[in-house]
Model the fold of this input.
Amino acid sequence: MGCGSFRNNHDNGNCVCQVVRAIKDIQDNAVEAAECQSCTSCFNEPLGSLVSPVKEMVDTRVFVLKTADGTPFHAFFNDDYNACVSIYFRVEDVFDNCCATLRVLVPGKKDGGNFVPVNFVKGDDKCCINLSKHCQVTCFKASNDCVTVDLSCFCAIQCIADVNLGICNS
Done:
């Protein structure tokens, strides 16, 4: 079956599912020391190796999922930033072979050391997503919103950055 086709077996053969599982394992096994690597991929270990050299402790591999038509999957979040929509995620859990709980991340940029959200909503009617804003994103914050997805419904995954969101801090 092709990408985007209906599947009722949710087998582990889905490549997006395998990558998200690998990201979850890498996040769970994050360590402080890392080796520099010349090429970035979602499979780079340890967590932090998407940035070379690793400058700080990280707890999250930020990624984007793409649908069958190539558009980034998006989800909504409630926050004080009035941005409300994001294409960036952190894996929180993978279960039932190919389902996952993803934390929606707030995209942002730094302005004088302060976090400023990047709003992906196009126009006042909030009907469309402006993907050209992706180029402005330089940092992320964790939202409190999560979405549960069937990973077999996606055709591509792109890892964006390894960052410290303070998710694991007590």
Observations:
- The helical segments are 15-28.
